[in-house]
């Protein structure tokens, strides 16, 4: 093998390793950023950034079990609903964010353009405002069925999906010296009775006091268990890539040496 071929092999190996790490570590979709503003102080107490998708299960008019996938669109209002059945609000020990959206994934008619769904997330705090923690305590999904879903009439056109009783959400973070940490996760699902909602590239903070609809620079975060395990895998992947490059270089050297010997014998 020539030095040019040798270099090409090494370059290809590096490129493959770099591509694998980029795919493994980085997300490409732009996330939706939402916030709940305290009307008295004007600051944001909850910030949530994520790509949100989900699945709802229901029974149609023929009594057949069906499921529909949906996406919370980028056009969802950034300041969440204060006028819903479960309105967004800030509080000292209890805070709530209600995301108002018309879901993507349905070919609805013009008359159904106001079929608004509401995803409500409730947070509770424990301990003091200076030193404690907060966690996601409950959540609901209010849906209005579209004509194409042909949902059974016993739903009366709408349904509220509630938290699965046995499911314990992982969303929680500490409050240190009055400053709450943010909870992050590359992918995390909330389970409802006959439904689920998945958050990708999730970053959320509650009981905050932010002046802008953005996470401040240097915000302390607490990753979910999935991401903790993933971060442990990165050194293994890097090591495997380096080991692979060593093998490529060694094989290239041995092949090149063997060819050089054969060419030497031929010239004699």
TrEMBL record:
Primary location: membrane
How this chain sits in the membrane, per its record, is: Single-pass type I membrane protein
UniProt key word Transmembrane: yes
Q: Does the keyword Ligase apply?
A: no
Which key words tag this protein in UniProt?
Glycoprotein, Membrane, Signal, Transmembrane, Transmembrane helix
Q: Which family does it belong to?
A: Belongs to the LAMP family.
Q: What is this protein called?
A: Lysosome-associated membrane glycoprotein 1
Q: Which species is this UniProt entry from?
A: Globodera pallida (Potato cyst nematode worm)
């Amino acid at each position: 093998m020539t030095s040019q071929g040798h270099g090409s092999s090494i370059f290809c190996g590096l490129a493959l390793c770099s591509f694998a790490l980029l795919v493994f570590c980085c997300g490409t979709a732009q996330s939706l950023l939402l916030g709940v503003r305290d009307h008295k102080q004007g600051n944001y107490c909850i910030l949530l950034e994520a790509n949100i998708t989900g699945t709802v299960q229901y029974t149609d008019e023929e009594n057949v079990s069906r499921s529909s996938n949906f996406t919370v669109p980028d056009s969802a209002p950034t300041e969440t609903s204060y006028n819903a059945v479960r309105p967004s609000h800030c509080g000292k020990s209890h805070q709530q964010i209600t995301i108002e959206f018309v879901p993507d994934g349905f070919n609805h008619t013009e008359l159904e353009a106001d079929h608004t769904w509401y995803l409500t997330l409730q947070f509770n705090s424990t301990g003091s405002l200076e030193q404690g923690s907060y966690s996601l305590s409950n959540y609901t999904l209010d849906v209005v069925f579209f004509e194409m879903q042909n949902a059974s009439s016993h739903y009366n056109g709408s349904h509220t999906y509630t938290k699965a009783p046995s499911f314990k959400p992982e969303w929680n973070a500490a409050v240190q010296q009055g400053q709450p940490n943010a909870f992050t996760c590359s992918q995390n699902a909330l389970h409802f009775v006959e439904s689920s909602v998945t958050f990708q590239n999730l970053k959320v903070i509650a009981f905050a006091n932010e002046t802008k609809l953005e996470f401040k620079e240097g915000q302390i975060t607490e990753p979910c268990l999935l991401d903790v395990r993933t971060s442990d895998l990165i050194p293994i992947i890097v090591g495997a890539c380096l080991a692979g490059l060593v093998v490529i270089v060694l094989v290239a050297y041995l092949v090149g040496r063997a060819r050089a010997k054969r060419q030497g014998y031929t010239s004699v």
